[in-house]
Design a protein that fits this description.
By secondary structure, the chain is of the alpha/beta class. The chain contains nine helices and 30 strands. 20% of the residues lie in helices and 31% in strands. Helix 4 crosses helix 7 and helix 7 crosses helix 8.
Amino acid sequence: MKALISAGGRGTRLRPITHTLNKHLFPIANKPMIFYALEKVSATGIKQVGININQGDKEIKKAVGSGKKWGVEIEYIEQKGGALGLAHVVKNAKDWIGKDELLFYLGDNIISGSIKPLVNKFKREKLDCLLALSKVPDPERFGVPVFKGERIVKVEEKPENPKSNFAVTGIYVYSNLIVEAVSAIKPSSRDELEISDAHTYIIEKGGKVGYEEITGWWKDTGKPEDLLEGNGLVLANIASEIKGSVDKSSKIKGRVFIGKNTKIGKNVSITGPAIIGQGCRLKNSVIESYTSIADGCEIRGTDIYNTIICDNSQLVDCKKRIANSLIGRDCKVISEKLSQPRGHRLIIGDNTEIEL
């Protein structure tokens, strides 16, 4: 069995951050999102991994490398023609898949549990397709299985009136019949090759389709609020460790990780779960729960809650509490007092959201 991880697409719902950063490299608890997928795949024992990337993309390859870190061999597969649907991702990789079985993992999905039981069930029951399902409050956002008794008879993509409250998560296990399926289906009304149509094709061809409900939590991190929730879920399980220095006037409570060469200066309060990367400088600030601060950041005179801050950003003397926010790399958020003449100075890109 081989594993194919999707890491392409445009990430439009996460703009403007995704104008300059592939969303699969956005940090969750200070680790690129795609690393979680690679950890899960590696734990199954699969050794050959393909990563689907956009044409010309060099970021993913630079960040991930050869796969040695996870004990796998990685081949990068450019998606020719652009983002044309998940089934197109598989079709585009069919030469690499060859005649093997396939674990298909969407690189922007994060789950708490192991996926090894899914692979084991697939092999034990000699299935052609195994779908990982999760109950969700908004199934209309996903592929939704249609049941007849306990058997899946169809999968509908983003239906207006879902026939169950299950979502098909971004983890699939296939026999080689998937290659035939993605080659046979036609583009949908969205002009995409839908993975749900490929699943329905397998069912109609008489393929043996099973499912397993995911235990624990699962997040599809397509929107800013999903990223924050996923970040919080991962942080809730981090181990406390302090590798940097902490001034005696500062206080740390709960699960908190502080990286090497980070200096927690005077009058800083940190309440976990929270993570602070390497080489950061903090002073006169309040860092509240579910906050991730990446390497090289400077935080002074600022109160932060439930926020992800990427590398080398500065937050200085912010009068208002920063909450529920995503802050990209090399950003500056500073007090208007430091601006001359006085006033709110804004340099804003497309799709930016600001509250003053």
